[in-house]
Amino acid sequence: MTEPIRVWRKSSYSGADNGCVELLTPPPLPRVPIRDSKLAHGPVINFSDRSWEPFVHAVQQGEFANHDFH
């Protein structure tokens, strides 16, 4: 079996302020790698497949909206 071709895809929630997150698709489960689109050769955060959905839900609920991560 051959490995699928994986590409970095920008989040549909990314805005014009360059606060963009990219997701490697399809993810190489059990990892879900994400990165900052401005740092294409920078660090990657690897979520476990079990922690990915709760993280996305927290983002959608605005749990990180008032945090400055810079």
Describe this structure in words.
With 70 residues, the chain is α+β, with helices and mostly antiparallel strands. 17% of the residues lie in helices and 27% in strands. The protein contains one helix and four strands. It has one helix at 49-60, and strands at residues 7-10, 21-25, 31-36, 45-48. The radius of gyration is 13 Å and the shape is globular.
Work out the number of β strands.
4
> What's the helix count?
1
- String of helices and strands: EEEEH
Residue runs with pLDDT of under 50 for 5 or more positions = none
Helix content: 10-25%
Overall residue-averaged pLDDT value: 85
Lateral strand order in the biggest sheet: 1-2-3-4
Major sheet, described briefly?
Answer: 4 strands, antiparallel
Strand content is 25-35%
Radius of gyration: 13 Å
Class derived from helix and strand content: alpha+beta
Separation of the first and last Cα atoms: 42 Å
Q: What overall form do the CA principal axes indicate? A: globular
Brief summary of the model shown:
This protein has one helix at residues 49-60, and strands spanning 7-10, 21-25, 31-36, 45-48. The chain is of the alpha+beta class and 70 residues long.
